[in-house]
Design a protein that fits this description.
The complex is a heterodimer. Chain A is of the alpha+beta class. Chain A has one domain. Chain A is 43% helix and 20% strand. Chain A has two helices and four strands. In chain A, a hairpin with a 6-residue loop joins β1 and β2. In chain A, α1 runs antiparallel to α2. Chain B is α+β, with helices and mostly antiparallel strands. Chain B has one domain. Chain B is built from two helices and three strands. A three-stranded antiparallel beta sheet of chain B has the order 1-2-3, covered by helices on one side. The longest helix of chain B has 54 residues. Chain B is rod-shaped and about 85 Å long. The chains are: A alpha+beta, B alpha+beta. At the A-B interface, α1 and α2 of A face α1, β1, β2 and β3 of B.
Chain lengths: 188, 128
């Protein structure tokens, strides 16, 4: 009876300690899963949001180029202003990287407008990086021109998960690239 | 016997802590998912409606959007659509801005406003 009384409190205290550790661990695990899901969710959501916007603007800018028959940088500025105003999120710095790809190398251009594009991307910025028609077949065809528009969005206060998880998907800024063919007559 | 009672009490206390925590996280996860779900489908359907309208004008963006959002846990009666015009170089754009207000039970204000914006150009089919 004496030994029972003396050992019970210490045993009980140990059990309480175990319970406390267990609860703390479970809360940490829940919180980590929750935070990761949240980050993944917003990354996917904003990535998609900017994909739609870049695809829309690539097409609209090409339409403008075809209409005016000239490459006017003022149109790109207007596109950037519209995108900045309508992102619905004040925490993004938006930038556009414009690539004109052509079979005529001297006509190829790349330039950035706005802030936000601070990452080198794997998207092609030279026609030779797009080998879909070989040189022989192209002999009697007019030169090809493509407008490549890369929308870059740099969010503030986001944990850059690419430092934790080695994946390009989680790297910042978010990038969305669209290409559209431009009629060669615009450049002649 | 006394020890067993104390153990049962311990388990009960543990359960009392864990169960509400678990339920809060579970319901919170459902609400966060609903947040992204709503934003995703609103964005996607507006984008599709704009593309379809540009391709084959006539039905209207609002009707296409409402049709697309049917059955996606979004109350289409609460949608509001504003139209504005902007210029992009020589091109005239019609901007469609969709707003949708919905309740979220885990937020102090309980209601969140979703917005999605997209643009359609004049005679977009000229590009083809």
């Amino acid at each position: 009876m004496t030994s029972y009384n003396s050992s019970t409190p210490s045993k009980f205290a140990k059990q309480r300690g175990v319970v406390a550790i267990e609860i703390a661990l479970i809360i940490v695990v829940f919180f980590t899963i929750f935070a990761f899901s949240y980050q993944l969710g917003r990354q996917l959501y904003w990535q998609q949001h900017f994909n739609y916007a870049s695809e829309r603007f690539a097409k609209l800018l090409v339409l403008d180029i075809l209409k005016t028959r000239k490459l006017d940088t003022a149109s790109f500025d207007e596109a950037l202003t519209l995108l900045e105003d309508k992102t619905e999120h004040n925490d993004f710095e938006i930038g556009l990287r414009i690539n004109i790809l052509s079979d005529i190398r001297s006509d190829e251009q790349s330039f950035d407008i706005g802030s936000g594009c601070n990452k080198q991307t794997k998207y092609p910025d030279k026609m030779e990086q797009l080998p879909f028609i070989d040189a022989v077949k192209r002999k009697d065809m007019p030169p090809r021109y493509l407008l490549g528009i890369s929308l870059c969005a740099q969010p503030k206060n986001w944990q850059n998960l690419s430092t934790v998880i080695d994946s390009d998907f989680f790297s910042l800024p978010l990038h969305s690239q669209s290409y559209y063919p431009v009629n060669h007559l615009v450049f002649n | 016997m006394k020890l067993r009672h104390k153990q049962s009490a311990n388990i009960a206390i543990e359960m009392a802590f864990i169960l509400p925590t678990f339920l809060i996280f579970l319901l919170g996860a459902i609400e966060v998912n609903r947040y992204f779900w709503t934003g995703y489908w609103l964005d996607y359907n507006l984008y599709q409606a704009i593309k379809d309208e540009a391709w084959e004008p006539g039905i209207g963006v609002e009707a296409r959007l409402t049709t697309g959002l049917n059955g996606l846990l979004i109350d289409t009666k609460k949608l509001s659509i504003n139209e504005n015009t902007h210029s992009l170089g020589d091109l005239l754009l019609t901007e469609y801005r969709v707003s949708y207000k919905t309740r979220f039970y885990f937020l102090p204000s309980k209601e969140l406003n979703f917005h999605s914006t997209s643009w359609v150009g004049d005679n977009e089919n000229d590009i083809i």
